[in-house]
Amino acid sequence: MRVDIISIFPEYFAPLDVSLVGKARERGTLDIRLHQLRDWTRDVHKTVDDTPYGGGPGMVMKPEIWGEAIDAVVEQGRPEADPAALPRMIVPTPSGRPFTQEVALDYAKEPWLLFTPARYEGIDSRVMAEYGSRLRVDEVSIGDYVLAGGEAAVLVIVEAVGRLLPGVLGNACSVADDSFAPGAMANLLEGPVYTKPPVWRGHEVPEILLSGHHGKIARWRRDEAFRRTSDKRPELLARLDSDALDAHDRRV
Ligand code: 6GU
């Protein structure tokens, strides 16, 4: 997968060299290119923002700079094999639609993503209108709180998507068991996990996990997932697949 990121803080993305995403980059599974937005400014001060029309606090990012930057990155990034290819453009913003595991799975199918994280009060809306008619543009939020800029959200999204790419995770099953993974565990939080020793500071590992009864263990894990979900995220239970609920209720 090719990923382009245009930002006034390309150095913010140093963590993409580390761990799972870093290894995927070394192997070439992920081809991440960082671009400095200010490279497309023409004034000595390299200005990227201006005061908002209509007044109010803060600054808005200028459309011309983003337009030139996006045009250049899209032009440069066109694969030789498919010169008509266009990236999916992802604009992180607290006013976007929620980024969920379902959205991550959707992005993981794309060959090319372009991220345009903003600082200040955001990007002039005409940029999203312009590219919305030329490529697919998604405004996405990673949660109901406000960050100082979209860069941290890009790190979150790239990590969530990167671990879904073929060959990135050591164990493909761990994706299937994820909290929020589609299937039997859809909308359920994962329950507790344990490793050796069997007793630590007087705390025992639940006996069932030492029993070797795979069927009973699977059922226990499902029960724990329901327990944890109803405790920490009761609103998720309301969204549960009715088949999953029926299967659970038949047992309890
Ligand atoms: Cl994507 N950006 C910013 N600035 N704040 C956020 C966010 C994104 N998602 C939640 N808060």
Automatic annotation (TrEMBL):
Protein's gene: trmD
Role according to the record: Specifically methylates guanosine-37 in various tRNAs.
Keyword S-adenosyl-L-methionine annotated: yes
Descriptive protein name: tRNA (guanine-N(1)-)-methyltransferase
HAMAP family linked to this entry: TrmD
UniProt family annotation: Belongs to the RNA methyltransferase TrmD family.
Gene Ontology MF terms: tRNA (guanine(37)-N1)-methyltransferase activity
InterPro entries referenced in this protein's UniProt entry, alphabetically: Alpha/beta_knot_MTases, tRNA_m1G_MeTrfase_C_sf, tRNA_m1G_MeTrfase_TrmD, tRNA_m1G_MTases_N, tRNA_MeTrfase_TRMD/TRM10
EC class name: transferase
Binding, S-adenosyl-L-methionine: 142-147
Stretches of the chain forming a coiled coil according to its record: none
Superkingdom of source: Bacteria
Organism of derivation: Planotetraspora phitsanulokensis
One Gene Ontology cellular component: cytosol
Reactions performed catalytically: guanosine(37) in tRNA + S-adenosyl-L-methionine = N(1)-methylguanosine(37) in tRNA + S-adenosyl-L-homocysteine + H(+)
Residues in tRNA methyltransferase TRMD/TRM10-type domain copies: 1-238
GO annotation, biological process: tRNA N1-guanine methylation
Compartment list: Cytoplasm
